[in-house]
Amino acid sequence: MADFRTFSTAKRSFAVPLQPVVDPAGWLPQDMADIDAWSYRLTDDDQAQVLEAVEAQRRMGTAVAQTGVESFRLQGGFASVMTDVREELRNGRGIVMLRNFPVRQMDREATAIAYLGVGSYLGRPMSQNMQGHILGHVKDLGGDYADPNTRGYFTRAEMRCHSDPCDYVGLLCLQTAKAGGASRVASSVSVYNTLLQRRPDLAEVLIQDFYRSRKGDVNPGEPAWFKQPIFTFHEGRFSAVGAGSSIDKAQGLPGVPPWSAEQQEAIALYREIAEELLLDIPFQPGDIQFLNNYVALHTRRDYQDWPEPERKRHLLRLWLYDPDNRPIPPEQRHGFRGRGVLPAGVQLNAPLDVRETA
What we know:
Number of domains: 1
Largest sheet: 7 strands, mixed
InterPro entries: AlphaKG_dependent_hydroxylases, TauD-like_sf, TauD/TfdA-like
Pfam families: TauD (PF02668)
Protein name: TfdA family taurine catabolism dioxygenase TauD
CATH class: Alpha Beta
CATH topology: Double-stranded beta-helix
GO molecular function: 2-oxoglutarate-dependent dioxygenase activity
CATH architecture: 4-Layer Sandwich
Organism: Pusillimonas noertemannii
C-alpha cells in the first residue's frame, strides 16, 4: 500500500533568496499524478474511531463550535495517522489527501463535529469571514467573482490560483458538481524555482511587498488592504503566498499605488508558470484535501451545478492555525495570515449550512 509520508527521508537545504530551493514540497504535477500514492484511505477501524469520538462528544454536550482535541478523542491508531499528516504538511510535500471519510454514515451535525475534530489534530480553527464561521461552506450562492468584495468560494467561477490566509486549509467533499469543479493544486516551491530559472530579475520583484485587498472583511477603522511579498525567506526556510484575486482587487483602493511595469510582468509570468504546474484532482464525497498554504497553491475549475439544492456541489472548509508550522516572517505569523478574518464582537460559530440569503 502507498504511503503519504515523505517527511523523514526527503531532502531539504538552507533556503537563500534568489537561489534554487531544495525542499520536499517542491514537487511537479507528474510526480503527484497517482493520487493514491500520497493519500491515506481510512480503514473500517479508523471510521469506527471517528464515529465513536463524535458520539462521545455528543454525550459530553460539547457544542459543535467548541470541538477540539479535548472533546474529540480518537481512541486508536488514527490519532497517530493524523500526527503524521501534520508532520507531512509541515516538513514533507505540504499536501495530503484523506479518503473514505464516513460522510455517508453521519448527519450534518456529526459530520461537522468529525471534521472539526480531525482538523484539531493539525491546528486551531480560525474564523473565515466576518460572521465568525470556523466551518466554511464552499458552494455557489450566485456571487459575482468580478465584484471586489465577493469571495470566490460563493461562486462557481474558476478562481485565481491562490493560498488562503492560514497555515493549513482543509476541504471536505460532501457533494460533487454535475460537471467540472475539479480541485487544482501546485507547488509554490516549484513555481518559484521555475520562475527563478526563467527570469531571476522578476523573482526579485516578487520578494517585495504587494498590496492585497481584504475583500470587505474589515472592522471599523481598519484599512481595506494589507501588504505581503509573494515569496519570503526566514530562518533558512522558503515560504510563499499566492498571487490570487486579492492583489487585483486591491488596485484602485484608497492608498494603493498602481502596479509598476515590472510588477505587472512578474505577476503575469508567475500566473503563467502556476498554470503550467497545476495538478487536477477530482474530488469524491468523503475526500479531504489538506494543504500547507506556505508551500502549496490551490484553485478549482469552473463548474456546472445540479438544479436541485440538495445535490449542489458542496465542500466544507477549515482554516487551521499551527504556530509550529514552518518558520515564516513575524509580520505574517502575527498579521492577517496568522489571525484570519477576526470580526470584532462576533462569537466564533460553526454553521451547518449557508444559503443565498446568508
